[in-house]
């Protein structure tokens, strides 16, 4: 029992998507290392558009060089669809995950828990110093959200990360390192 043609094509499309996503992530990481800035969203959009344009030019070049236009056109159209899907997945990852890690106080709370030795009062004091009394109410809301999501536990004045919370915190730290996310780095308690 071998792999039929449809399964082979599906596997090839999936692998192509993963390769394009990985390549875009690598390029974004390099761009962020060479030119760190707070323009993460712009860099994600620019890289997504450039990937599509470069592949479109590649398709046009191949079509102009081919003598079998009809068969080659169908193949190129399918490959272009694959590239488009991969770029959209990369865009969703970039804007949905990386931007959140870089700018979300909901995630900043994870590093504050570790830096404050699990003290709720320390987190409130830090937030008050940074953002005023209004910020403390916002942090209370974020802590409640994280507790309801099962990422943190609060017992009297102690706050701890659950196992899942530790995974999220490590993923945020890893994203910060790989993509030079200054917002998350700068949110550390000093």
Keywords:
190 residues; mainly alpha; Arc Repressor Mutant, subunit A; 2 domains; 7 helices; 2 strands; 4% strand; elongated
Would you kindly provide a written description of the structure presented here, covering whatever features stand out?
It is a single chain. The protein is mostly helical and 190 residues long. It folds into 2 domains: 5-103; 105-186, Arc Repressor Mutant, subunit A (Orthogonal Bundle). It contains 7 helices and 2 strands. Strands 1-2 form a two-stranded antiparallel sheet. The longest helix has 35 residues, at 69-103. It is elongated. The mean pLDDT is 82.
Outline:
This protein has about 190 residues and is mainly alpha-helical.
Biggest pleated-sheet summary: 2 strands, antiparallel
The structural domain count equals 2
Query: Which range best describes the helical content: under 10%, 10-25%, 25-40%, 40-55%, 55-70% or over 70%?
Result: over 70%
Strand ordering within the main sheet: 1-2
Number of helices: 7
User: Segments where pLDDT lies below 50 for 5+ residues?
Assistant: none
Estimate the global geometry from the Cα principal axes: elongated
The averaged pLDDT comes out at 82
Question: What Rg is obtained from the alpha carbons, in whole angstroms?
Answer: 22 Å
Multimeric state: single chain
- Tell me the series of helices and strands, N- to C-terminal: HHHHHEEHH
Q: Which class best fits the helix and strand makeup?
A: mainly alpha
Gap from first CA to last CA: 62 Å
Number of strands: 2
Beta-strand content estimate: under 5%
């Amino acid at each position: 029992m071998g792999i039929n043609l449809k399964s082979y094509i599906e596997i090839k499309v999936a692998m192509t998507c993963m390769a394009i996503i990985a390549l875009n992530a690598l390029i974004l990481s390099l761009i962020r290392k060479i030119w760190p800035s707070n323009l993460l969203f712009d860099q994600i959009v620019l890289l997504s558009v450039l990937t599509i344009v470069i592949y479109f030019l590649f398709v046009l070049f191949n079509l102009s060089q081919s003598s079998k236009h009809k068969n080659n056109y169908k193949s190129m159209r399918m490959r272009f669809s694959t590239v488009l899907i991969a770029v959209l997945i990369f865009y969703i990852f970039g804007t949905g995950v990386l931007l959140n890690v870089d700018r979300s106080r909901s995630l900043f709370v994870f590093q504050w828990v570790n830096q404050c030795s699990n003290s709720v009062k320390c987190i409130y004091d830090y937030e008050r110093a940074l953002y005023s009394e209004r910020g403390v109410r916002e942090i209370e809301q974020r802590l409640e959200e994280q507790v309801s999501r099962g990422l943190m536990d609060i017992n009297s004045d102690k706050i701890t990360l659950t196992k899942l919370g530790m995974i999220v915190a490590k993923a945020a730290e890893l994203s910060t390192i790989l993509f030079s996310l200054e917002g998350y780095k700068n949110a550390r308690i000093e």
